[in-house]
Give the backbone structure.
Amino acid sequence: MEIFSEFSLIITIALVVSIGMHLLRQPLIIGHILTGLVAGPLIVGSGELETFKLFSEIGIAILLFTVGLNLSPHTIREFGRVALVTGIGQVVLTTAAGYFIVRLLGYPVIEGLYIAVALAFSSTIIILKLITDKGDLDALYAKIAIGFLLVQDFIAIFLLFLIPLISTEEASLSGVGTKAALGAIMIAVTLVFSFSVMKRLNTFFAKNIELLFLFAIAWGMGIASLFKLGGFSIETGALIAGIGLSTLPSRHEINAKLSPLRDFFIVMFFILLGAQMNLGNIAGNAKIATILSLLVLIGNPLILMSIMGVLGYKKRTSLLTGFTVAQISEFSLILLMLGVAQGHVRQDTLSLVTLVGLITIFGSTYLIKYADHIYTFLEPILGIFERTHVYESAVARERYPVILFGCNRIGQDFVKQFREHGQRFLVVDHNPETVEELRKNGIAVEYGDARDIDFLDELGLSDVELAVSTIPDAEANLLIARSVRAQSPNAIVMVVAHKIGDAIEHYQEGVDYVILPHFLGGEYAARLSIELQENREKVPVVREKHIEALLLRIKLGHEHPERRS
């Protein structure tokens, strides 16, 4: 069978298995690994294994690039103390407990360390997906979890950076120091260049969404390749490349555009993992995998709950947060794959840890989903994890009850009204120059394309009370209306339309009010004519205000729309 047909068959198998996982309400990552198990002989025996390895590397690189894009220090600053203490404390304690267990099970020192560390990391991606699906993204436990998961990601990335340095035969203290210095210089140069030059280039690239997408891919893959040439891992380079763009106004748009590409290629990574698992070894490793899975499913939450109890958090918050570490991370599997590549870990051990991943991801899904019911059941005995005098910080979150899509001619009028009435509002616009101007004027603004459903999902519209779109695109306004309604059913939605047929369609979609500028302008002018006739003293005032407004429009670069036939 040729490679295209093989690939098509594997994707079809992945679809069928993923449908089963979806019906079971399980993360699709489990389905992807199971797909690899089913299609393993087809992949490994096809002679095209290198193609799947390449796809896998691309998936890992894009995954780490998007992680870097979202590694803003804001969340860690907000919950810095608890994030650092729980993140580092849980990794250290789980590693120690895991190492003790695997050594008792007869694993050698180096391989035991790999397994123990792999058991300590939890999946940021899976946890974010589960918390988002549950609608708890703004809850205190979710904020704390995001903070310490980012700390864990930093630790994992550091290990991915360190292991290749100390694994070479000629490795010495001076050699490692030299390589570390080279790595530090490369990181510093990349970040300085990103934070200085890339901000200026952003305006140019952001004017064309396809160009922005291609730029992001070229930047991420290019920096990853440079780090590879420098003797470091692709993973390190990809992460640094993402961090370099994390301060750009267009970062959310880049992330939204890369998400489908990342998801597709990361599927290849997990399928390849499943394909390389030995079914015979799975049966032989079942007992050991069960022991290690219990450490992750029960031991990790207990460790985290103990730490949070000492820090003064309530038992409910401690339990809900504890459940977020009841599975191992994709970084755990990447770390083990690196260990296999370095000759430190056997392929059978990678299969064992992958099996642990399957078990713990499956189990933690239900722990998080039914966390409130479990808390009600366990509440009487959870007092041991709560101090007499608890301290639980409130979640400080940025709420925007009003959101404006598009700051064009009509949008400027809304901005003026919102500011005059003291509204807390967010502007979303796709023009980088407009975004920069609004930011200079102290207006909260996000760069992004409202036609991108992934971007709309990332905005988080659950707190919106009023959503206004002045974007002159019927399809974009339909997407906005549906997204707002899905996340905030009671919000008021207003959109612009230039055709009566579009306006009727928007009303049928559930939009509360459709602005038709030409008709609205006529109605306003008619009312104004009567008002001025009855009070001629107002004519000079209205006239001067209109001239002032027109001059401001010219300054902003607004032009009157061309007349339509």
In short: The radius of gyration is 27 Å. The CA atoms of residues 102 and 112 lie 6 Å apart. The chain has 24 helices and six strands. Confidence is low (pLDDT under 50) at residues 561-565.
